Fold each of these.
Amino acid sequence: MSTFEALASLSVGSNLGNRLANLRTALRHLRNTAELEVVQTSDVFETAPWGVTDQPYFLNACILVKCALPPEELLTLLKGIEAKMGRRVERRWGQRVIDIDILTMDSLVCDTPNLHIPHKDMHRRGFVLVPLAQILPCWVHPVTGRRVDEMAPLFRDPEPVRVCRL
């Protein structure tokens, strides 16, 4: 029997309720998951909404975890945490109590109807790249061939504002 193990990076975001408490609750859920070990967290950044702009600003951060779950099982786990925290999907890119996305899993490339690793839009989003550069600066995108710390200064979003540590 083979055991799956990967270093995965996750993006967490919230723009409803107590946004910082929501991020910290998500982190606590991740820490209490036997198949995950939280390795590092980024700072928390406040950012303008992306995609749908008529909503409150977000707090965003990234979390690096050692993961003993295959990608689809990790996705199921993360969606379960979102549901426990009261996430309701009403419209794409809309308001949310919590959003947890898989950004990377080592150099894995996964493209299924339900899951894209690396996250398909990560290289276009400052709210992902800036915190990710704090915890995984030398990671090389397996499709673009660019390092995170090279991509972070190129984003087109307004500058994320550092708020605090996660």
Amino acid sequence: MMTILCITICIMALLGAFTFHCSAWHCIFVAVISGILCIVRFFFFRKSKIKKILVPVLAFALLWFCVYIPQSPTEYGTDNYLQTFDRYVKAVEAGKDSQAEKLREELGEKYGETDDVRFMQAAAALDKGEIEEAEALSSSFENKKTMYYYMLQEEIIRGKYKENPDERSQQLLLIYLEAAEAFPEWDYVLKNAGGILFDYGRYEEASYYLTAAYTYEEEPDGETIYYLGASLIELGMVDRGLYLLNEALTCDIDDTMKSHILWYAEKAGWEAGT
């Protein structure tokens, strides 16, 4: 049994290292440890108690190393990619276009086009007001089910429909609902989806998303609580709605939000003294 386990560990380690295209030294390290493990298992310390300790320790070390092996799309290794990408991000944020372009080309040559690089390019385009360029980059994403993709779409929509509030709200609602489906515990999109639905008078749907946002938020958010309370009041659940409005007043809110809360409180026949 020990022999089978030993061989299985070595094979899995080698396959894992090469399958995930780790950097060369990672693969060599795994191969060396696998070889040592086999040699110790079959040739040395046959009657020694050291073997009973050494073999499990080597096996555990090999498995641990394989679990934490940096995964990368190429043989260059994740560490090098992250370092180069970090320099690229800093160049973009600093507005050093020529340096950023050189680093982008380097990333493309070594690792191919990635969504991380596309995201930074799109973010830089948005900063310059190049909405169409950002939109084209976002459409080329390989994975359109990530948080940063949805965040990018939000900013594109805000810029694209800046002069058309109605269309902007409709498009934002679509992206928020899609993001909420992909990430059911993302309180930011849950709150925003609920707020727009409330503005559209779709109170039952609004209360669904706002309740979810209220549940997942780490800190009480006055805007979420206000919209949820107002939605429940519109649905006839006045007592629960008023309780939430009162809670919203205890949060850090601006004067505009406070006036909305007091207006709903008065509408529901409750005098909010705070």
Amino acid sequence: MLIVQDPLFKKHRTPDGHPERPARAGALDAVLEDAARRSGAALERARAASDEELQRVHAQAYVERIKRFCAEGGGALDADTHAVAESFEVARHAAGAAIQLVEYLLEGRGRAGFAAVRPPGHHAGPDYPMGFCLFNNVAVAAAHACAKSPAARVLIVDWDAHHGNGTQDIFYERAEVFFLSMHQFPFWPGTGAASETGRGAGRGTTLNVPLPAGTPRERIRAAFREALDRVAEVFEPTLVLVSAGFDMHRLDPLGGQTLEAEDFGGMTRELWERFVLKGAAGMASCLEGATTWRV
């Protein structure tokens, strides 16, 4: 297993009181280092994604906009999304960390990985930042897999409490990437209705599972298994990527869901058994949601 973490991620700073803050990365340092020691997992620093790698999913003008904005000192990109001078480099390394996981799996060095990245990515679209996100880390990684292996078929599973609208926008018309999202609905950002299923070549490769606030955890888990059944009927992934938000936890201050810590482990095992043990090269997770209940 590969774990990617980097002290650089703490250099992306947000205003005081912001839920997506450097303490999130700091809170994971000792935990991940201990996990690596106990499991024998490889522990690596992040590498930067190149402009070419970012531009597989983001418009060139958008990448240049973020680079310029940060070079000029940063500020507020919107009401929720902020950057400082270091944020462009940090965000490049967050996307690069996701690519590292994919390369680790595709090269057969292991079958599982986790990247403790920030800023998160799943709200960033082809040409816009949103919801604390600058570049879409998981989308960059999925596109990298498809570029390196034309036969790749990537399943992205997003269980953040907020719908991954940016990931959906990027792959909505592409058949080689299946996007499955479990999220609270109605809830910010307002996307992710069950009727959103893809368009053109991508019709049928988007599956949204909207859940009302306060859905019992047993029902969430059952809905997840039902969704995996539906995916397996139409899509055989060669790689599984997880947008691992943890704000569906019952103690999250922004969400309204009911999961316990063990449920995230259970869903991970279900994905592993359903797809990796049946032929996918492996599964990798990238940190998303801004859970702050312990930091």
Amino acid sequence: MGDVAVVEASGLGHEYSTAGVTTRILGSLEFIVASGEFVCIVGPSGVGKTTLLRCLAGLLRPTFGSITVDGHPIARGNSALSLVFQDYGRSLLPWLTVLANVALPLKGTAPRAERRDRAVSALHEVGLGDVLENYPWQLSGGMQQRVAIARALVVEPRVILMDEPFASVDAQTREALEDLVLRIRNHGGMSVVLITHDIDEAIYLADRVIVLGGRPAEVRANIPIPFGRHREQLATKAEPEFAELRARVHQLIGAPDDGRRPAADQGNPRDEGARQ
């Protein structure tokens, strides 16, 4: 994993105005995502995790501060970024084949033969090379989410953003998809930013866990995860340190929203990177 910052948020804040009432959702967030790093963002419901992800994706313009990708201001349609949504049923087009769904982001940017070749390669990467001509509604939920992941991979992004991508599948499928995303990251070298409510999932997947809390949201902690690149569902989760990290993150998420953090987690969160 490189030390170069691919994504950098500086003083990032966002607020909404409704009926003349302004609500600050995100405070002044500061963090980076390094090249090849897997970062999971957790926090209580309603803290602003999805709002943050939309800002990172260029779908929302931050009210305050800045976001850069490779040193350049974030922009909608940035080919360095891909986004995987939670609801694969809405993100895939049911009237297009699996192959056509995956090739869709390349339309207008590459010749037809190249689009097909890259889509086929992405589908093989996620283990779906044998269902190219099927339609999404003919596949299981886990397979549909694999199609969505393949579509994110086809543009060869620097960063994949994922909004609770495994929340709609069963536990066994969820574990298989977690391991798939780890293999893809390890093989392809891209950075991953994943939003999740599941503390175990965050610790299992991440090189670093960012905990949000407070109103407006702040970075409550920035926690390196010491399990290396190659992880196993049973063995990694049986590590004593896994339980310690779970308890630490759980405590941070449940801490009072009074603007304070436990002493052990205070300091500049930008100084804590994943130490692999």
